[in-house]
């Protein structure tokens, strides 16, 4: 069996470990021939592929980024693909002698995996995203690393904030899901955590900051990039669109900081963590999760369990039908937010 490995969407720590796990299991145990496409669907369209064997994946688990590269180049120019584009996909697969795909990515990538499956093309999904917003799995690899980086930033901002009696506002990624903000805020002991799922008023935020000041401390506010103030029209965005045609989120911390300062009289500073959250070596948790996911995906291909995604449930890696994993955003449940909100201020 000849399997193609393809990564798409944003990079996420642990992708190399996932590739290694899939290749070692697929090639060494099941006797597969495996190839990787460079820069996702760009490599597939342009015949830019490399062989994947034990030597190709040696020592890559601790590395950040992804050795194959990734991109947001879509498989089809016309959304879900017209007849000619589907014919071109099948012709390319025949040219490469592919029997199926292992697709590493988030919601968009797994949606493509489902489209391929529905069209009779074999595909298995490996769920990665720092945002942890993909259904069908408890955690995606890359999330733990992003939270760890954000938690360290909180620790560092807290010391400088306390030194100057300032309120520090830290903006983290996550788009329209608040998982990174929620977990980093809890880990770092932030006095306020603001997430997209639960708008708050500037009056309430200021009240929390003032209550921290009144007991002799300096506030640390964590805000997810997709957070909106109560009554606002929408998220704070930067100029332009991302690779999926969505508004570029970012800048909410820079909007909030002067509002907090104006209402509280407390000097307030904003920090946007940005792509630092994606970079560097993955945590041990993400390396293990990604490796187990890669192993499970290769085993699924060997067993003919196409049309599934390798998701984490408790301490098990289960094969989840792709239709259960895509089509909805996995957001922070109300109960998870309420349990920490009671401690704000």
From TrEMBL:
Keywords: ATP-binding, Cytoplasm, Glycolysis, Kinase, Magnesium, Metal-binding, Nucleotide-binding, Transferase. Pathway: Carbohydrate degradation; glycolysis; D-glyceraldehyde 3-phosphate and glycerone phosphate from D-glucose: step 3/4. NCBIfam families: PRK03202.1. The keyword Cytoplasm applies. The active site is at residue 131. Residues 2-300 form the Phosphofructokinase domain. Substrate binds at residues 129-131, 166, 173-175, 225, 269, 275-278. Gene3D superfamilies: 3.40.50.450, Phosphofructokinase domain. Its main location: cytoplasm. Catalyzes the phosphorylation of D-fructose 6-phosphate to fructose 1,6-bisphosphate by ATP, the first committing step of glycolysis. GO terms for molecular function: 6-phosphofructokinase activity; AMP binding; ATP binding; diphosphate-fructose-6-phosphate 1-phosphotransferase activity; fructose-6-phosphate binding; identical protein binding; metal ion binding; monosaccharide binding. It is found in: Cytoplasm. Its cofactor is Mg(2+). Its EC number is 2.7.1.11. This is ATP-dependent 6-phosphofructokinase. Homodimer or homotetramer. GO terms for biological process: canonical glycolysis; fructose 1,6-bisphosphate metabolic process; fructose 6-phosphate metabolic process.
């Amino acid at each position: 069996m000849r399997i193609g490995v393809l990564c798409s969407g944003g990079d996420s720590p642990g992708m190399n470990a996932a590739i290694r796990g899939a290749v070692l299991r697929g090639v060494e145990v099941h006797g597969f021939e495996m190839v990787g496409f460079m820069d996702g669907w760009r490599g597939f369209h342009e015949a830019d592929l490399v062989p994947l064997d034990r030597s190709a994946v040696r020592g890559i688990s601790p590395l950040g980024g992804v050795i194959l590269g990734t991109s947001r180049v879509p498989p089809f120019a016309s959304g879900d693909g017209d007849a000619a584009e589907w014919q071109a996909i099948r012709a390319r697969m025949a040219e490469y002698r592919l029997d199926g795909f292992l697709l590493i990515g988030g919601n968009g990538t797994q949606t493509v995996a489902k489209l391929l499956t529905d069209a009779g093309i074999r595909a298995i999904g490996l769920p990665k995203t720092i945002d942890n917003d993909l259904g069908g799995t408890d955690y995606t690899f890359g999330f733990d690393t992003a939270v760890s980086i954000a938690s360290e930033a909180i620790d560092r901002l807290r010391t400088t904030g306390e030194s100057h009696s300032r309120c520090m506002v830290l903006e983290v990624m996550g788009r329209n899901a608040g998982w990174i903000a929620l977990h980093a805020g809890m880990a770092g002991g932030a006095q306020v955590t603001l997430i997209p799922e639960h708008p708050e008023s500037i009056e309430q935020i200021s009240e929390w900051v003032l209550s921290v000041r009144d007991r002799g401390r300096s506030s640390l506010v964590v805000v997810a990039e997709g957070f909106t103030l109560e009554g606002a029209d929408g998220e704070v965005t930067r100029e332009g669109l991302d690779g999926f045609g969505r508004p570029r989120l970012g800048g909410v911390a820079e909007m909030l900081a002067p509002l907090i300062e104006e209402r509280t009289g407390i000097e307030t500073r904003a920090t946007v963590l940005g792509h630092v959250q994606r970079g560097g070596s993955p945590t041990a948790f993400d390396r293990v999760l990604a490796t187990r996911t890669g192993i499970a995906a290769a085993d699924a291909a060997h067993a003919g369990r196409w049309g599934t995604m390798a998701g984490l449930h408790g301490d098990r890696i289960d094969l989840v039908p792709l239709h259960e994993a895509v089509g909805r955003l996995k957001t922070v449940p109300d109960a998870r937010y309420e349990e920490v909100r009671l401690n704000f201020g």
